[in-house]
Amino acid sequence: MTGLLHRIFPLTAALLLFAPSAISQSAPPDDLVVYGGTASGVMTAYAAAKEGLHVVLLEPGTHLGGMVTGGLSATDVAHYQIIGGYAREFYRQAAAHYGVHTLNKHDDWLSEPKVGEAIFQQWLKQAGVEVKFHERLKEHGGVSKSGTTVLSITTEDGKVWKAKTFADCSYEGDLMAQAGVHYTVGREGMEVYHEDLAGVRVDTPKHQFLWKISPLDEKGKLMPEVDPGPMGANGAGDKKVQAYNFRMILTDSPGNKLPWTKPEGYDASNFALLAKYLGEWKEHMHREPTFRDVMNPVMIPNHEADFNNNGAFSSDYIGKSWTYPDAGYAERQKIWDDHLLYTKSFLWFLASDSRVPKQLQAEVNSWGRAKDEFLDTEGWPNQLYIREGRRMIGVYVMKQADLQTDRTKPDSIAMGSYNSDSHNIQRVATPDGGVRNEGDVQVSVKPYEIAFGTILPKKEETVNLLVPVCLSASHVAYSSVRMEPQYMMLGQAAGVTAAMAVRGKTAVQEIDVKSLQKRLREQKAILHIDQEESGDSL
C-alpha cells in the first residue's frame, strides 16, 4: 500500500491510542458525548471538536466508520454535486490515497475499508476527540434525565458520562429510545402521510423471481426461507423492516484471497429454493447463471470488489431483521450471528454444492475474502448493514413528498439525491402456488433538501439530544435519506448545532438556523438546490 496509510499511524497503534480509560463520576460534564462511532458519529464528533467543544465519542465495538468502513465501499452517491462539507473532504482524501484528485465520476468515490478507517482515526486524533471503544449503553436505565434535559448516560462497565449535549449516531437509536424520544418501526400505511409508495408493495419487478416457481419441496412442504404469508393488502402498514445483509469485500487476486470454507452450523437444506431456481435458470433465461445474477459486485481499487445483494435469492437475509430494532442486546446478537452464518452458508453453497451450475461455481471460487481487510474477523465484515431500524418522530417528519414535489426547505442542513431504495421485506408463498419477494422500492428522485427538524427530537421530550442517523422520516423517505453520505453531512450539521447550543446555553431546537446554515456553508456544505457552487468546485 502507498499514499495515505504510510502517513498515518498503524491501525493497531490507533486502537491503543483510543483504548478505554476511566472517567470520574464527579468530573465536570463534557461539552458533547457522541454515542456510536458510525461515519455519522465520526463527523458529528469531528465537527463539534473543530468548533472548539470538548468531545467524547463512545463506540460499543472496536472500529470507526460503521458501514463506510464495514463493507459498503460502493458509495451510494447519485448526484455527487450535492455532497459537500466534511463528507466530501473525506471522499476527496480517500481518492487522493489512490492518486485520484477529482470526484467527477462514481469510481472516484470508491475506496477500501481500511483506507476510510485510517482517515477517520486521523481526523479524530487531530481534532482532539476522545475516542472510547467497548462502551455500550447500559441496556436498561442507561440514561439519566432531569425534566427534558439528558444529564448523563451510563455504559455497561458502570462508567457515567456527563455532557451538556448528546448525539445518538448509532444505527440502533438506543440512547434516543432510553431518553424518551418517540419513534416508530416498520412501514406506515398509505393513509398516514398520503404516500403511494407506502406499505405493502404487492407487485414489484426488481430483485424478484423471474418466472413462477413453486416454494414447495417434493413432499409438498414449504421450503426454508419462505414465509407462509399472507403478504398483506397493498398499501397496508406493518412493523416489518427491510432486509439486512453483510456487504462483502472480495478479491480475485490469488495472493490476497482466502478460500471458501464450510461454516460451522451449515445446513444445505436452507438453500433448497435457490438450488431449484438455479436448476431452472437455463431453461427460462437461455443461458447459464453468473455470479452477477446472485450478487452485485462493484469493483474498488486493488483488485477488490464490494459484493451486495442482487436478484431474487441473494445475500439479503429476507424476513430475519424484523425484530432487530426493538430487540434486547442478546436477541440482537443472535440476529447478527444468524445473518453472518447465513452469509457464510450462502457463499459456501454457491462454491461447493453439486446443484450449483458448474460455470457459476467456478466463478464464485475465483473470488475470496480479502486477506488485508477485516483482519480481526477473518475477512468477514465487522458491521451488519442495518438498513433501517428505529426512526424518530421528531420536529419534522420527512415524507415522500419531500423527495418528489416539496424538495426545498428554508431550514435545509444537507441534501439528498439517491433514489428511493428499500430492499425486500418478506418472501411469501402466494395463493397461486408461487413465491414472491415483497417490499422493494426503487424510484428515482431529483436532488432534495433535508430539513433541520429531521435530526431534532420534539422539545417537550428532550432539549439537548441530536439524532442524525435514526432521523425523523417515514419509511418511504428514509429509503432515500438513509445513505451514508447523507448521514455524514447530517452529522456535520449536528456537531455544529451542538457547538452553537453549548455556547448559547440554549436548547438544540432554539439555535439560530440562519447562523447554522452560514457556518455550514463556510465549511463548504451544499444546502440548497439553487446553490451556485458545483460539488466538484468545492
Automatic annotation (TrEMBL):
The keyword Signal applies. GO terms for molecular function: 4 iron, 4 sulfur cluster binding; metal ion binding; oxidoreductase activity. Keywords: 4Fe-4S, Iron, Iron-sulfur, Metal-binding, Oxidoreductase, Signal. Residues 1-26 form the signal peptide. The keyword Iron-sulfur applies. InterPro entries: FAD/NAD-bd_sf, HdrA-like. This is FAD-dependent oxidoreductase.
